Amino acid sequence: MGCAVALATACDDAAGPGSGGQMARDDGVMDFGAGGSGGAGGAGGGGGKADGGAGDAAPPVDAALDCVPGTRSVDPCPQRGVCAGETTALCGPEGSWGPCELPSTAGEERCNALDDDCDGQTDETYPELYLPCDGEEDADKCELGQWRCAADGASVECVRDDEQFEQCNGVDDDCDGAVDETLPPPPAGENQVGICAGTLQICGGEAGWIEPDYTAIEGFEARELTCDGLDNDCDGRVDAGPFAPRAERAVGVCEGLRQVCGGAEGFMEPDYARVPGYEPDELTCDGQDNDCDGATDEALSPPPCLLTAGVCARPVVPALCLGDVGWVDCDYGPDYQRVERDLCDALDNDCDGQVDEGDAGCGGEGERTVRVPARAYTQGSPDGELGRDADEGQRPVVLTRTLLVRATELTQQEWVEITGDPSPAFFLGADRPVEQVTWLDAVRALNLMSQRDRLPPCYVINGDEVTWPDGLACTGWRLPTEAEWEYLARGGSAQAHWGRDLGLPLSTLAWYRENSGEQTHGVGQLAPNPYGLHDMLGNVAEWTWDIYGPYGDGEAQDPLGAEAGPTRVARGGSYLNPEGRVRAANRAEFEPATRLRDLGLRPVRTLREE
Protein backbone atom coordinates (compact mmCIF):
# COMPACT_ATOMS: atom_id res chain seq x y z
CA MET A 1 0.00 0.00 0.00
CA GLY A 2 1.26 3.47 -0.77
CA CYS A 3 1.73 5.85 2.11
CA ALA A 4 -0.64 8.71 2.85
CA VAL A 5 0.45 12.25 2.13
CA ALA A 6 1.67 14.05 5.26
CA LEU A 7 2.65 17.68 5.71
CA ALA A 8 6.48 17.87 5.21
CA THR A 9 7.14 14.32 6.50
CA ALA A 10 8.54 11.18 4.93
CA CYS A 11 6.71 7.95 4.46
CA ASP A 12 6.62 5.71 7.48
CA ASP A 13 9.21 2.90 7.15
CA ALA A 14 6.81 0.70 8.92
CA ALA A 15 4.68 0.33 5.80
CA GLY A 16 4.02 -3.10 4.54
CA PRO A 17 6.29 -5.03 2.21
CA GLY A 18 6.99 -3.36 -1.09
CA SER A 19 5.42 -0.03 -0.25
CA GLY A 20 6.73 2.93 -2.19
CA GLY A 21 8.47 5.76 -0.37
CA GLN A 22 8.30 9.54 -0.56
CA MET A 23 11.28 11.73 0.10
CA ALA A 24 10.90 14.96 2.04
CA ARG A 25 12.20 18.19 0.54
CA ASP A 26 13.81 20.95 2.56
CA ASP A 27 11.02 23.37 1.63
CA GLY A 28 8.34 20.97 2.79
CA VAL A 29 7.17 20.11 -0.69
CA MET A 30 7.56 16.50 -1.53
CA ASP A 31 9.48 15.24 -4.55
CA PHE A 32 8.30 11.91 -5.76
CA GLY A 33 11.29 9.58 -6.29
CA ALA A 34 11.44 6.48 -8.34
CA GLY A 35 11.13 4.31 -5.26
CA GLY A 36 11.67 4.07 -1.50
CA SER A 37 13.47 1.95 1.02
CA GLY A 38 11.85 -1.27 2.01
CA GLY A 39 9.99 -1.71 5.21
CA ALA A 40 11.20 -3.66 8.18
CA GLY A 41 10.28 -7.03 6.82
CA GLY A 42 9.57 -6.09 3.24
CA ALA A 43 11.32 -6.62 0.00
CA GLY A 44 11.72 -2.96 -0.64
CA GLY A 45 9.98 -0.36 -2.74
CA GLY A 46 10.39 0.53 -6.34
CA GLY A 47 13.84 2.04 -5.87
CA GLY A 48 14.65 5.13 -3.90
CA LYS A 49 18.00 6.60 -2.83
CA ALA A 50 18.26 3.90 -0.20
CA ASP A 51 18.70 0.28 -0.93
CA GLY A 52 15.48 -1.49 -1.56
CA GLY A 53 13.54 -3.56 -4.02
CA ALA A 54 13.45 -3.27 -7.74
CA GLY A 55 10.74 -0.54 -7.65
CA ASP A 56 9.08 0.82 -10.74
CA ALA A 57 12.25 1.63 -12.75
CA ALA A 58 13.93 -0.68 -15.26
CA PRO A 59 17.03 -2.48 -13.90
CA PRO A 60 20.15 -0.39 -14.42
CA VAL A 61 22.85 -1.63 -16.70
CA ASP A 62 25.54 -0.92 -14.14
CA ALA A 63 24.67 -2.41 -10.80
CA ALA A 64 26.40 0.52 -9.11
CA LEU A 65 23.83 2.93 -10.67
CA ASP A 66 20.10 3.34 -9.90
CA CYS A 67 19.26 4.11 -13.52
CA VAL A 68 20.73 4.78 -16.89
CA PRO A 69 21.54 8.49 -17.12
CA GLY A 70 19.25 10.40 -19.54
CA THR A 71 16.40 7.90 -19.49
CA ARG A 72 12.92 8.33 -18.05
CA SER A 73 11.05 6.04 -15.76
CA VAL A 74 8.77 3.53 -17.36
CA ASP A 75 5.92 4.17 -14.92
CA PRO A 76 4.36 7.63 -14.46
CA CYS A 77 4.89 9.49 -11.26
CA PRO A 78 2.19 8.84 -8.67
CA GLN A 79 0.77 12.36 -8.87
CA ARG A 80 -2.67 13.57 -7.75
CA GLY A 81 -5.17 16.33 -8.33
CA VAL A 82 -4.52 18.56 -11.28
CA CYS A 83 -1.08 17.00 -11.50
CA ALA A 84 -2.32 13.58 -12.47
CA GLY A 85 -1.12 12.46 -15.86
CA GLU A 86 1.68 10.67 -17.72
CA THR A 87 4.53 12.69 -16.24
CA THR A 88 7.71 10.60 -15.60
CA ALA A 89 10.99 11.03 -13.70
CA LEU A 90 14.34 11.71 -15.44
CA CYS A 91 17.57 9.74 -14.60
CA GLY A 92 20.35 12.18 -13.76
CA PRO A 93 24.04 12.05 -14.84
CA GLU A 94 25.00 10.43 -11.61
CA GLY A 95 22.69 7.51 -12.35
CA SER A 96 19.98 8.38 -9.85
CA TRP A 97 16.30 9.37 -10.48
CA GLY A 98 15.50 13.01 -10.40
CA PRO A 99 12.22 14.53 -9.18
CA CYS A 100 8.98 14.33 -11.22
CA GLU A 101 8.46 17.40 -13.31
CA LEU A 102 5.47 19.55 -12.41
CA PRO A 103 2.95 19.95 -15.23
CA SER A 104 1.95 23.36 -16.52
CA THR A 105 -1.43 22.99 -14.81
CA ALA A 106 0.08 23.32 -11.36
CA GLY A 107 -0.81 26.63 -9.67
CA GLU A 108 -1.90 28.35 -6.48
CA GLU A 109 -3.84 26.17 -4.09
CA ARG A 110 -7.62 26.86 -3.97
CA CYS A 111 -10.44 25.61 -1.77
CA ASN A 112 -11.90 23.06 -4.11
CA ALA A 113 -10.85 19.55 -2.94
CA LEU A 114 -8.05 19.49 -5.55
CA ASP A 115 -4.28 19.48 -5.29
CA ASP A 116 -3.89 22.67 -7.28
CA ASP A 117 -0.17 23.17 -6.60
CA CYS A 118 0.70 19.48 -7.05
CA ASP A 119 2.45 19.18 -3.73
CA GLY A 120 0.55 16.10 -2.70
CA GLN A 121 -1.70 18.05 -0.37
CA THR A 122 -5.29 19.23 -0.89
CA ASP A 123 -6.69 22.55 0.34
CA GLU A 124 -3.75 22.85 2.77
CA THR A 125 -3.96 26.65 2.84
CA TYR A 126 -7.40 26.49 4.50
CA PRO A 127 -6.63 24.96 7.93
CA GLU A 128 -10.15 25.66 9.28
CA LEU A 129 -11.73 23.55 6.53
CA TYR A 130 -14.14 20.96 7.95
CA LEU A 131 -13.78 22.33 11.47
CA PRO A 132 -16.88 23.34 13.47
CA CYS A 133 -18.08 26.89 13.02
CA ASP A 134 -20.52 27.15 15.92
CA GLY A 135 -18.27 28.55 18.60
CA GLU A 136 -18.73 31.77 20.49
CA GLU A 137 -16.84 33.67 17.89
CA ASP A 138 -19.26 32.22 15.35
CA ALA A 139 -22.45 33.01 17.22
CA ASP A 140 -24.05 34.47 14.06
CA LYS A 141 -23.53 31.27 12.17
CA CYS A 142 -25.68 28.14 11.97
CA GLU A 143 -25.60 25.68 14.83
CA LEU A 144 -23.93 22.39 14.00
CA GLY A 145 -22.24 24.14 11.14
CA GLN A 146 -18.92 23.18 9.50
CA TRP A 147 -16.52 25.19 7.40
CA ARG A 148 -16.80 24.23 3.76
CA CYS A 149 -15.35 25.57 0.53
CA ALA A 150 -17.35 28.51 -0.73
CA ALA A 151 -18.64 28.63 -4.31
CA ASP A 152 -15.92 31.10 -5.33
CA GLY A 153 -13.14 28.58 -4.43
CA ALA A 154 -11.21 31.30 -2.63
CA SER A 155 -12.88 31.19 0.78
CA VAL A 156 -14.79 29.01 3.20
CA GLU A 157 -18.36 29.30 4.48
CA CYS A 158 -20.27 27.76 7.34
CA VAL A 159 -22.64 24.96 6.29
CA ARG A 160 -24.70 22.65 8.43
CA ASP A 161 -23.63 19.07 8.22
CA ASP A 162 -27.16 17.85 7.51
CA GLU A 163 -28.23 20.65 5.11
CA GLN A 164 -25.69 21.41 2.42
CA PHE A 165 -28.37 22.93 0.08
CA GLU A 166 -31.23 25.30 0.65
CA GLN A 167 -34.56 23.48 0.92
CA CYS A 168 -38.11 24.74 0.17
CA ASN A 169 -39.33 25.05 3.76
CA GLY A 170 -39.30 28.72 4.70
CA VAL A 171 -35.99 28.25 6.59
CA ASP A 172 -32.49 29.64 5.94
CA ASP A 173 -31.00 26.19 5.47
CA ASP A 174 -27.62 27.35 4.10
CA CYS A 175 -27.17 30.00 6.81
CA ASP A 176 -26.57 32.88 4.38
CA GLY A 177 -29.33 35.14 5.67
CA ALA A 178 -31.71 34.38 2.77
CA VAL A 179 -34.66 31.98 2.82
CA ASP A 180 -35.45 29.43 0.11
CA GLU A 181 -32.97 30.82 -2.39
CA THR A 182 -30.75 28.72 -4.69
CA LEU A 183 -33.16 25.83 -4.34
CA PRO A 184 -32.58 22.46 -5.92
CA PRO A 185 -34.54 21.78 -9.13
CA PRO A 186 -38.25 21.82 -8.32
CA PRO A 187 -40.39 18.74 -8.93
CA ALA A 188 -42.67 18.57 -11.93
CA GLY A 189 -46.24 19.81 -11.59
CA GLU A 190 -49.03 17.26 -11.34
CA ASN A 191 -50.61 18.41 -14.67
CA GLN A 192 -48.15 17.47 -17.39
CA VAL A 193 -50.36 17.44 -20.52
CA GLY A 194 -51.12 20.00 -23.23
CA ILE A 195 -49.50 23.38 -22.85
CA CYS A 196 -49.00 22.55 -19.14
CA ALA A 197 -46.36 19.95 -20.02
CA GLY A 198 -42.99 20.79 -18.45
CA THR A 199 -44.45 23.00 -15.73
CA LEU A 200 -42.69 22.85 -12.35
CA GLN A 201 -43.97 23.24 -8.86
CA ILE A 202 -43.17 26.43 -7.01
CA CYS A 203 -41.82 26.92 -3.52
CA GLY A 204 -44.54 27.87 -1.05
CA GLY A 205 -42.27 28.48 1.97
CA GLU A 206 -43.49 26.56 4.98
CA ALA A 207 -46.03 24.81 2.74
CA GLY A 208 -43.18 23.30 0.74
CA TRP A 209 -43.50 22.65 -2.98
CA ILE A 210 -46.96 23.52 -4.32
CA GLU A 211 -48.69 23.36 -7.71
CA PRO A 212 -47.97 26.29 -10.06
CA ASP A 213 -50.57 28.87 -11.15
CA TYR A 214 -51.59 27.30 -14.45
CA THR A 215 -53.52 30.43 -15.44
CA ALA A 216 -50.19 32.22 -15.73
CA ILE A 217 -49.19 29.91 -18.59
CA GLU A 218 -49.44 31.71 -21.93
CA GLY A 219 -52.41 30.36 -23.83
CA PHE A 220 -53.94 28.54 -20.84
CA GLU A 221 -57.73 28.43 -20.80
CA ALA A 222 -59.79 27.08 -17.92
CA ARG A 223 -62.30 26.07 -20.61
CA GLU A 224 -61.07 25.30 -24.11
CA LEU A 225 -62.10 28.22 -26.33
CA THR A 226 -59.35 28.63 -28.90
CA CYS A 227 -58.88 26.52 -32.04
CA ASP A 228 -55.10 26.40 -32.35
CA GLY A 229 -54.06 22.75 -32.34
CA LEU A 230 -53.17 22.91 -28.63
CA ASP A 231 -54.59 21.42 -25.46
CA ASN A 232 -55.20 24.80 -23.86
CA ASP A 233 -57.07 23.55 -20.80
CA CYS A 234 -54.57 20.73 -20.18
CA ASP A 235 -57.17 17.96 -20.01
CA GLY A 236 -55.43 15.67 -22.47
CA ARG A 237 -57.70 16.64 -25.39
CA VAL A 238 -56.76 19.02 -28.20
CA ASP A 239 -59.31 21.62 -29.34
CA ALA A 240 -62.03 19.65 -27.56
CA GLY A 241 -64.64 22.24 -26.84
CA PRO A 242 -64.13 25.51 -28.77
CA PHE A 243 -67.52 26.83 -29.91
CA ALA A 244 -67.14 27.08 -33.65
CA PRO A 245 -68.42 30.20 -35.44
CA ARG A 246 -71.17 29.99 -38.03
CA ALA A 247 -70.06 28.81 -41.46
CA GLU A 248 -70.01 31.44 -44.21
CA ARG A 249 -72.69 29.60 -46.20
CA ALA A 250 -74.94 28.36 -43.39
CA VAL A 251 -78.17 28.75 -45.38
CA GLY A 252 -80.28 26.40 -47.46
CA VAL A 253 -79.35 22.77 -47.00
CA CYS A 254 -76.30 24.08 -45.07
CA GLU A 255 -78.54 25.73 -42.44
CA GLY A 256 -76.93 25.58 -38.99
CA LEU A 257 -73.56 24.50 -40.35
CA ARG A 258 -70.55 25.69 -38.39
CA GLN A 259 -66.89 25.98 -39.15
CA VAL A 260 -64.52 23.21 -38.15
CA CYS A 261 -61.32 23.49 -36.14
CA GLY A 262 -58.26 22.94 -38.28
CA GLY A 263 -55.73 22.90 -35.47
CA ALA A 264 -52.90 25.34 -35.97
CA GLU A 265 -54.73 26.76 -39.01
CA GLY A 266 -57.62 27.88 -36.81
CA PHE A 267 -61.28 27.64 -37.76
CA MET A 268 -61.93 26.72 -41.38
CA GLU A 269 -64.96 26.34 -43.60
CA PRO A 270 -66.50 22.87 -43.35
CA ASP A 271 -66.56 20.34 -46.15
CA TYR A 272 -69.83 21.34 -47.76
CA ALA A 273 -69.70 18.29 -50.01
CA ARG A 274 -70.60 16.15 -46.99
CA VAL A 275 -73.89 18.01 -46.44
CA PRO A 276 -76.82 15.92 -47.76
CA GLY A 277 -78.26 17.55 -50.87
CA TYR A 278 -75.40 20.02 -51.29
CA GLU A 279 -74.40 20.99 -54.86
CA PRO A 280 -71.47 23.32 -55.68
CA ASP A 281 -73.67 24.76 -58.45
CA GLU A 282 -77.44 24.59 -58.24
CA LEU A 283 -78.52 21.71 -60.46
CA THR A 284 -81.63 20.19 -58.94
CA CYS A 285 -85.13 21.62 -59.08
CA ASP A 286 -86.38 20.69 -55.62
CA GLY A 287 -87.35 23.91 -53.84
CA GLN A 288 -84.12 23.93 -51.85
CA ASP A 289 -81.06 26.12 -51.78
CA ASN A 290 -78.67 23.34 -52.70
CA ASP A 291 -75.58 25.49 -53.23
CA CYS A 292 -76.17 27.41 -49.97
CA ASP A 293 -75.97 30.87 -51.48
CA GLY A 294 -79.29 32.16 -50.18
CA ALA A 295 -81.21 31.60 -53.43
CA THR A 296 -83.47 28.66 -54.22
CA ASP A 297 -83.43 26.83 -57.56
CA GLU A 298 -81.68 29.76 -59.23
CA ALA A 299 -79.78 29.72 -62.53
CA LEU A 300 -80.88 26.19 -63.32
CA SER A 301 -80.47 24.91 -66.83
CA PRO A 302 -83.93 23.70 -67.83
CA PRO A 303 -84.23 20.25 -69.36
CA PRO A 304 -85.12 19.95 -73.07
CA CYS A 305 -88.75 20.50 -73.96
CA LEU A 306 -90.78 17.34 -74.37
CA LEU A 307 -92.26 18.57 -77.68
CA THR A 308 -90.13 19.91 -80.51
CA ALA A 309 -92.31 20.02 -83.65
CA GLY A 310 -94.71 22.68 -84.91
CA VAL A 311 -95.40 25.60 -82.59
CA CYS A 312 -93.40 23.75 -79.93
CA ALA A 313 -90.17 24.20 -81.90
CA ARG A 314 -89.80 27.68 -80.42
CA PRO A 315 -91.25 27.58 -76.91
CA VAL A 316 -92.20 30.88 -75.32
CA VAL A 317 -90.79 29.86 -71.93
CA PRO A 318 -88.44 26.95 -71.25
CA ALA A 319 -89.25 24.27 -68.72
CA LEU A 320 -90.12 25.90 -65.41
CA CYS A 321 -88.92 24.83 -61.98
CA LEU A 322 -91.77 24.84 -59.46
CA GLY A 323 -89.75 24.01 -56.38
CA ASP A 324 -90.70 20.77 -54.68
CA VAL A 325 -93.08 20.03 -57.59
CA GLY A 326 -90.06 19.72 -59.88
CA TRP A 327 -89.84 20.69 -63.53
CA VAL A 328 -92.94 21.67 -65.49
CA ASP A 329 -92.67 21.23 -69.23
CA CYS A 330 -92.02 24.22 -71.49
CA ASP A 331 -94.65 26.85 -72.21
CA TYR A 332 -95.23 26.48 -75.93
CA GLY A 333 -97.24 29.67 -76.23
CA PRO A 334 -100.92 30.40 -76.90
CA ASP A 335 -100.91 28.56 -80.23
CA TYR A 336 -100.21 25.21 -78.57
CA GLN A 337 -103.17 22.85 -78.28
CA ARG A 338 -103.07 19.39 -76.80
CA VAL A 339 -105.55 18.39 -79.51
CA GLU A 340 -105.59 20.24 -82.86
CA ARG A 341 -108.74 22.33 -82.91
CA ASP A 342 -110.54 24.08 -85.75
CA LEU A 343 -108.13 26.99 -86.15
CA CYS A 344 -106.93 26.53 -89.70
CA ASP A 345 -103.92 28.68 -88.87
CA ALA A 346 -101.21 26.95 -90.90
CA LEU A 347 -99.65 25.77 -87.67
CA ASP A 348 -98.96 22.39 -86.17
CA ASN A 349 -100.73 23.33 -82.95
CA ASP A 350 -100.48 19.94 -81.25
CA CYS A 351 -96.81 19.56 -82.24
CA ASP A 352 -97.25 16.15 -83.85
CA GLY A 353 -95.63 17.07 -87.14
CA GLN A 354 -98.94 17.61 -89.01
CA VAL A 355 -100.53 20.96 -89.89
CA ASP A 356 -104.27 21.61 -89.48
CA GLU A 357 -105.06 17.93 -89.57
CA GLY A 358 -108.15 16.21 -88.22
CA ASP A 359 -111.27 18.30 -87.87
CA ALA A 360 -109.64 21.60 -88.80
CA GLY A 361 -111.06 21.30 -92.32
CA CYS A 362 -108.82 23.89 -93.92
CA GLY A 363 -108.47 22.09 -97.19
CA GLY A 364 -104.81 23.15 -97.37
CA GLU A 365 -105.60 26.83 -96.86
CA GLY A 366 -103.47 26.97 -93.77
CA GLU A 367 -100.32 26.33 -95.74
CA ARG A 368 -100.77 29.70 -97.48
CA THR A 369 -101.06 31.78 -94.31
CA VAL A 370 -98.65 33.53 -91.98
CA ARG A 371 -99.06 34.17 -88.26
CA VAL A 372 -98.08 37.72 -87.21
CA PRO A 373 -97.97 38.62 -83.48
CA ALA A 374 -99.41 41.95 -82.35
CA ARG A 375 -96.99 44.79 -81.64
CA ALA A 376 -96.84 48.54 -81.20
CA TYR A 377 -95.49 50.69 -84.05
CA THR A 378 -95.54 54.23 -85.46
CA GLN A 379 -98.18 54.75 -88.15
CA GLY A 380 -97.75 57.35 -90.91
CA SER A 381 -94.69 58.84 -92.58
CA PRO A 382 -92.11 61.40 -91.46
CA ASP A 383 -91.76 64.81 -93.08
CA GLY A 384 -89.66 64.68 -96.23
CA GLU A 385 -90.52 61.11 -97.28
CA LEU A 386 -90.82 60.94 -101.10
CA GLY A 387 -94.49 61.06 -102.19
CA ARG A 388 -95.77 61.89 -98.71
CA ASP A 389 -99.31 63.32 -98.45
CA ALA A 390 -100.68 65.58 -95.73
CA ASP A 391 -102.98 62.80 -94.39
CA GLU A 392 -100.02 60.60 -93.33
CA GLY A 393 -99.23 62.31 -90.02
CA GLN A 394 -97.42 59.99 -87.61
CA ARG A 395 -98.93 58.58 -84.41
CA PRO A 396 -98.17 55.63 -82.09
CA VAL A 397 -100.47 52.64 -82.54
CA VAL A 398 -100.83 49.62 -80.29
CA LEU A 399 -102.29 46.45 -81.79
CA THR A 400 -103.56 43.83 -79.38
CA ARG A 401 -104.55 40.98 -81.71
CA THR A 402 -102.31 38.34 -83.20
CA LEU A 403 -103.33 37.82 -86.82
CA LEU A 404 -103.35 34.96 -89.29
CA VAL A 405 -102.69 36.60 -92.68
CA ARG A 406 -102.80 35.23 -96.21
CA ALA A 407 -99.21 35.23 -97.44
CA THR A 408 -100.37 36.55 -100.83
CA GLU A 409 -103.22 38.54 -102.23
CA LEU A 410 -106.34 36.45 -102.92
CA THR A 411 -105.90 34.81 -106.34
CA GLN A 412 -108.48 34.41 -109.08
CA GLN A 413 -108.51 30.62 -108.64
CA GLU A 414 -109.23 31.04 -104.90
CA TRP A 415 -111.99 33.55 -105.72
CA VAL A 416 -113.71 31.07 -108.02
CA GLU A 417 -113.39 28.23 -105.45
CA ILE A 418 -114.77 30.40 -102.64
CA THR A 419 -117.60 32.23 -104.43
CA GLY A 420 -118.46 29.83 -107.27
CA ASP A 421 -118.46 32.84 -109.61
CA PRO A 422 -116.15 33.41 -112.59
CA SER A 423 -113.15 35.64 -112.10
CA PRO A 424 -114.01 39.33 -112.45
CA ALA A 425 -110.37 40.25 -113.17
CA PHE A 426 -109.21 42.23 -116.18
CA PHE A 427 -105.86 40.41 -116.35
CA LEU A 428 -106.94 36.78 -116.20
CA GLY A 429 -104.73 34.12 -114.63
CA ALA A 430 -105.31 31.49 -111.94
CA ASP A 431 -102.34 32.66 -109.86
CA ARG A 432 -102.81 36.36 -110.56
CA PRO A 433 -104.51 38.45 -107.88
CA VAL A 434 -108.24 38.88 -108.29
CA GLU A 435 -109.13 42.50 -109.11
CA GLN A 436 -112.14 44.49 -110.21
CA VAL A 437 -113.88 43.50 -106.97
CA THR A 438 -115.86 46.05 -104.99
CA TRP A 439 -115.54 46.50 -101.23
CA LEU A 440 -118.93 44.81 -100.88
CA ASP A 441 -117.75 41.91 -103.08
CA ALA A 442 -114.75 41.50 -100.80
CA VAL A 443 -116.69 41.25 -97.49
CA ARG A 444 -119.20 38.80 -99.06
CA ALA A 445 -116.35 36.54 -100.27
CA LEU A 446 -114.71 36.62 -96.85
CA ASN A 447 -117.92 35.49 -95.14
CA LEU A 448 -118.09 32.59 -97.62
CA MET A 449 -114.45 31.75 -96.88
CA SER A 450 -115.24 31.60 -93.12
CA GLN A 451 -118.21 29.30 -93.76
CA ARG A 452 -116.01 27.01 -95.87
CA ASP A 453 -113.49 26.73 -93.05
CA ARG A 454 -116.23 26.34 -90.42
CA LEU A 455 -115.35 29.65 -88.83
CA PRO A 456 -117.82 32.29 -87.62
CA PRO A 457 -118.55 34.88 -90.36
CA CYS A 458 -117.50 38.33 -89.21
CA TYR A 459 -119.87 40.54 -91.24
CA VAL A 460 -123.60 41.05 -91.26
CA ILE A 461 -124.60 42.19 -94.76
CA ASN A 462 -127.96 43.79 -95.39
CA GLY A 463 -128.06 45.08 -98.96
CA ASP A 464 -125.35 47.71 -99.20
CA GLU A 465 -125.15 48.04 -95.42
CA VAL A 466 -122.42 46.06 -93.64
CA THR A 467 -121.87 45.79 -89.90
CA TRP A 468 -119.17 44.02 -87.89
CA PRO A 469 -120.85 43.01 -84.63
CA ASP A 470 -117.92 41.30 -82.85
CA GLY A 471 -115.30 43.59 -84.28
CA LEU A 472 -111.71 42.44 -83.83
CA ALA A 473 -112.84 39.61 -81.55
CA CYS A 474 -114.33 37.75 -84.52
CA THR A 475 -112.13 34.77 -85.49
CA GLY A 476 -113.48 34.36 -89.03
CA TRP A 477 -111.87 35.71 -92.19
CA ARG A 478 -112.09 39.47 -92.65
CA LEU A 479 -110.42 42.57 -94.12
CA PRO A 480 -107.55 44.08 -92.10
CA THR A 481 -108.06 47.45 -90.51
CA GLU A 482 -106.01 50.26 -92.01
CA ALA A 483 -103.72 50.25 -88.96
CA GLU A 484 -103.30 46.45 -89.18
CA TRP A 485 -102.54 46.64 -92.87
CA GLU A 486 -99.76 49.23 -92.47
CA TYR A 487 -98.24 47.22 -89.61
CA LEU A 488 -98.20 44.10 -91.81
CA ALA A 489 -96.77 45.99 -94.81
CA ARG A 490 -93.90 47.54 -92.84
CA GLY A 491 -92.57 44.20 -91.65
CA GLY A 492 -90.98 45.97 -88.69
CA SER A 493 -89.41 48.79 -90.77
CA ALA A 494 -89.84 52.54 -90.30
CA GLN A 495 -88.74 53.23 -93.91
CA ALA A 496 -90.97 53.94 -96.91
CA HIS A 497 -90.61 50.23 -97.69
CA TRP A 498 -88.91 47.45 -95.75
CA GLY A 499 -86.34 46.74 -98.49
CA ARG A 500 -84.44 49.90 -97.65
CA ASP A 501 -83.35 48.41 -94.31
CA LEU A 502 -81.62 45.65 -96.28
CA GLY A 503 -80.42 47.77 -99.21
CA LEU A 504 -82.95 46.20 -101.59
CA PRO A 505 -84.48 48.29 -104.41
CA LEU A 506 -88.26 48.49 -104.69
CA SER A 507 -88.19 46.42 -107.89
CA THR A 508 -87.12 43.31 -105.90
CA LEU A 509 -90.22 43.34 -103.71
CA ALA A 510 -93.02 45.15 -105.56
CA TRP A 511 -94.62 45.26 -109.03
CA TYR A 512 -95.00 48.97 -109.84
CA ARG A 513 -94.87 51.24 -112.89
CA GLU A 514 -91.13 50.81 -113.46
CA ASN A 515 -91.08 46.99 -113.67
CA SER A 516 -94.67 45.72 -114.09
CA GLY A 517 -95.32 46.38 -117.76
CA GLU A 518 -98.56 47.91 -116.46
CA GLN A 519 -100.22 44.59 -115.68
CA THR A 520 -100.63 42.23 -112.75
CA HIS A 521 -98.30 39.31 -112.11
CA GLY A 522 -98.64 35.96 -110.42
CA VAL A 523 -98.62 36.30 -106.63
CA GLY A 524 -95.56 35.45 -104.55
CA GLN A 525 -92.95 35.94 -107.31
CA LEU A 526 -91.02 38.73 -105.56
CA ALA A 527 -89.30 38.73 -102.17
CA PRO A 528 -91.53 38.48 -99.06
CA ASN A 529 -91.17 41.00 -96.29
CA PRO A 530 -89.72 40.01 -92.87
CA TYR A 531 -93.15 38.72 -91.81
CA GLY A 532 -93.26 36.37 -94.82
CA LEU A 533 -95.88 38.37 -96.74
CA HIS A 534 -95.65 38.85 -100.52
CA ASP A 535 -96.91 41.80 -102.62
CA MET A 536 -97.94 43.97 -99.69
CA LEU A 537 -96.73 46.80 -101.94
CA GLY A 538 -97.55 46.91 -105.66
CA ASN A 539 -99.25 44.37 -107.93
CA VAL A 540 -102.79 45.37 -106.82
CA ALA A 541 -103.92 47.73 -104.07
CA GLU A 542 -105.85 46.07 -101.22
CA TRP A 543 -109.15 46.97 -99.55
CA THR A 544 -109.20 47.58 -95.78
CA TRP A 545 -112.17 47.77 -93.40
CA ASP A 546 -111.77 51.45 -92.48
CA ILE A 547 -113.92 54.37 -93.55
CA TYR A 548 -111.51 57.03 -94.75
CA GLY A 549 -110.83 59.91 -92.36
CA PRO A 550 -107.97 61.81 -90.67
CA TYR A 551 -105.92 60.09 -87.98
CA GLY A 552 -106.80 60.98 -84.41
CA ASP A 553 -104.40 62.68 -82.02
CA GLY A 554 -102.21 60.78 -79.59
CA GLU A 555 -101.71 57.06 -79.17
CA ALA A 556 -104.36 54.78 -80.68
CA GLN A 557 -105.13 51.21 -79.65
CA ASP A 558 -106.66 48.99 -82.33
CA PRO A 559 -108.10 51.97 -84.29
CA LEU A 560 -111.01 51.17 -86.66
CA GLY A 561 -111.07 54.31 -88.86
CA ALA A 562 -113.66 57.07 -89.12
CA GLU A 563 -117.15 56.48 -87.75
CA ALA A 564 -118.84 57.63 -90.98
CA GLY A 565 -117.98 58.66 -94.49
CA PRO A 566 -118.60 57.84 -98.14
CA THR A 567 -115.32 56.07 -98.93
CA ARG A 568 -113.26 53.13 -97.75
CA VAL A 569 -109.43 53.00 -97.52
CA ALA A 570 -107.25 51.01 -99.94
CA ARG A 571 -103.53 50.62 -99.30
CA GLY A 572 -100.27 49.51 -100.93
CA GLY A 573 -100.30 51.05 -104.41
CA SER A 574 -100.38 48.99 -107.58
CA TYR A 575 -98.55 48.07 -110.77
CA LEU A 576 -99.81 51.36 -112.25
CA ASN A 577 -98.31 53.63 -109.58
CA PRO A 578 -94.91 55.32 -109.45
CA GLU A 579 -92.52 54.67 -106.57
CA GLY A 580 -93.86 57.60 -104.52
CA ARG A 581 -97.24 55.86 -104.27
CA VAL A 582 -95.91 52.40 -103.55
CA ARG A 583 -95.14 53.02 -99.89
CA ALA A 584 -96.25 51.53 -96.57
CA ALA A 585 -97.77 54.85 -95.42
CA ASN A 586 -99.53 55.81 -98.67
CA ARG A 587 -103.33 56.07 -98.36
CA ALA A 588 -106.03 55.87 -101.04
CA GLU A 589 -109.85 56.12 -100.77
CA PHE A 590 -112.62 54.73 -102.96
CA GLU A 591 -116.35 54.34 -102.76
CA PRO A 592 -117.32 50.80 -101.69
CA ALA A 593 -118.87 50.03 -105.10
CA THR A 594 -115.70 50.92 -107.00
CA ARG A 595 -114.24 48.33 -109.42
CA LEU A 596 -110.67 48.83 -110.56
CA ARG A 597 -108.31 46.56 -112.50
CA ASP A 598 -105.61 47.25 -109.87
CA LEU A 599 -107.68 46.80 -106.67
CA GLY A 600 -108.06 43.47 -104.83
CA LEU A 601 -107.95 42.07 -101.26
CA ARG A 602 -105.96 40.07 -98.68
CA PRO A 603 -107.84 37.99 -96.07
CA VAL A 604 -106.82 38.08 -92.39
CA ARG A 605 -108.12 36.47 -89.18
CA THR A 606 -107.88 37.23 -85.48
CA LEU A 607 -106.18 34.36 -83.70
CA ARG A 608 -106.26 35.78 -80.20
CA GLU A 609 -105.99 38.91 -78.10
CA GLU A 610 -102.58 39.44 -76.56
What does this protein structure show overall?
The protein has three helices and 23 strands. The protein has helices spanning 412-419, 439-452, 482-490, and strands spanning 89-91, 97-100, 145-149, 156-160, 202-203, 209-210, 260-261, 267-268, 320-321, 327-328, 369-372, 376-379, 395-398, 401-406, 460-462, 465-467, 477-478, 541-547, 556-557, 568-571, 587-590, 599-600, 604-609. 5% of the residues lie in helices and 13% in strands. The strands form nine sheets. The chain has a four-stranded antiparallel β-sheet with strand order 11-14-23-17. Strands 21-20-18-22 form a four-stranded mixed β-sheet, with helices on one face. The protein has 610 residues and is mainly beta. It is rod-shaped and about 175 Å long.
Main attributes?
610 residues; mainly beta; 4-stranded antiparallel β-sheet; 13% strand; rod-shaped
Overall radius of gyration: 65 Å
Percentage of residues in helical conformation? under 10%
Name the beta content range: 5-15%
What structural category do the secondary elements indicate? mainly beta
Order of helices and strands: EEEEEEEEEEEEEEHHEEEHEEEEEE
Total number of strands: 23
- Report strand order across the widest sheet: 11-14-23-17
Topology record:
Layout: E1 89-91, E2 97-100, E3 145-149, E4 156-160, E5 202-203, E6 209-210, E7 260-261, E8 267-268, E9 320-321, E10 327-328, E11 369-372, E12 376-379, E13 395-398, E14 401-406, H1 412-419, H2 439-452, E15 460-462, E16 465-467, E17 477-478, H3 482-490, E18 541-547, E19 556-557, E20 568-571, E21 587-590, E22 599-600, E23 604-609
Parallel strand pairs: 13-19, 18-22
Antiparallel strand pairs: 1-2, 3-4, 5-6, 7-8, 9-10, 11-14, 12-13, 14-23, 15-16, 17-23, 18-20, 20-21
